[in-house]
Design goal:
It is a single chain. This protein is mainly alpha-helical and about 180 residues long. It contains five helices and no strands. The protein has one domain (about 15-165).
Amino acid sequence: MKALGDKFEKPKYSFLAMFLHWCFVILFAFGIYKQVDDISQLEDISFFRAEIMFASVFLLFLVFRFFYMTKTQKTSLPDNVPKYQKFAAKFVHFSMYACLVGIAGSGLLIGYFYSLGFRDEFLVTIIIGAHEFFVSVIYWLISIHVIAAIYHRLKNDGVWSSMVPIWKERSTNSKDDGR
């Protein structure tokens, strides 16, 4: 993030990291849009196959993104950020990954047991409950993530500009102020 001036020396995320982030936002939004409203919809074999394919692609994409981000990218949080804030950021990110795996995994389990004929069984009800729990938690985590991003944008510390392609931060050093 050298373009932001001497105040921001943290590296910017790679183009692939930003691309994966925003593709994932779109993929998740599509998943919400096309969600199963009633489990009986799974009786339609083409719908069932589409759901299995979507959940499988979603899960593979998520696993790829997780390993790519953890192995090749570094945090864009400034070094002077308090430890509790770094912990909170890591906790929210890892929790988001866990919930998203839980959503896709429980969805696949629901489909699997449904295909075996377990339609109104206690086990399917438990898995549906877990699926709904993960969905509820991910909404909270995404909200926290977005609020934190906006907080960092308002702080003008370079975190926002490391991942968001719009409303870029400006450097606060004197060279950029025209003084």
